[in-house]
Specification:
Layout lengths: L1 E5 L7 H11 L4 E7 L2 H13 L3 E8 L2 E8 L4 H7 L4 E8 L9 H16 L4 E7 L14 H9 L3 E5 H6 L10 E3 L1 H10 L2 E4 L1
Helix pairs in contact: 1-2, 4-5
Length: about 200
């Protein structure tokens, strides 16, 4: 039995408290906590040691750590064999808030359906990038926000182009993910083995 926690952006000691509570709620199994700073990572490893639990740390990006803490008899080696890969090395780029050409109304419905389908698809893409009018999907009023928040909670990186947000004058309305720049977006695309343009 496994639990995944997203503690990115949380101040100390919240990641430790969240993880400790999740461990207390299970008899045995594992808890994966995602954090975005070295201090939180070190605090979580100290927690695992203090509880005499087996643990593993994976660095998924320059600023992101996935700390797996095992409670019970299961070992990290067994977990890695029995647990499928959560993420596929794929970046999906959204260049519009609509899918396909033709009817705008239909395009909006198709896009909403596509993003909902991502929440039910496994393994997940590692990152989603929003460019041009695609940034409208990540701001207030978007009908895809609930699904995008679910994906972000699972650890998927969501990046919106800052220049695009500024162009449409909606930067202050960003609700999900983070603002990025073209250099970082290019690096994300270059480092992915697969890139899908929507």
């Amino acid at each position: 039995m496994g639990t995944k926690l997203d503690a990115r952006g949380q101040d100390c000691p919240k990641p430790v408290i969240m993880t400790k509570k999740a461990l207390e709620e299970i008899k045995e199994g594992f808890v994966i906590c995602i954090v975005d700073n070295e201090v939180a990572k070190e605090n979580l490893t100290k927690l695992a040691k203090s509880l005499s639990h087996d643990y593993d740390v994976k660095k998924n990006s320059d600023k992101e750590f996935h700390i797996t803490i095992i409670k019970g008899k299961e070992k990290i080696e067994e977990l890695e064999i029995s647990t499928p890969n959560t993420f596929k090395d794929m970046t999906i780029v959204f260049g519009s808030d609509k899918m396909g050409k033709g009817s705008d109304e239909l395009g909006e419905l198709l896009m909403k359906g596509f993003i909902y389908a991502l929440t039910e698809s496994f393994p997940y893409p590692s990152s989603l990038i929003f460019l041009n009018s695609g940034v409208r999907l990540t701001i207030e009023g978007s009908n895809t926000l609930d699904d995008l928040k679910k994906l972000e909670a699972q650890g998927i990186k969501i990046l919106s182009c800052g220049a695009c947000l500024d162009f449409y004058k909606v930067a202050e309305k960003l609700v999900v993910g983070e603002v990025s720049n073209m250099y970082n977006i290019l690096e994300e695309i270059k480092n992915a083995n697969n890139t899908l343009m929507i």
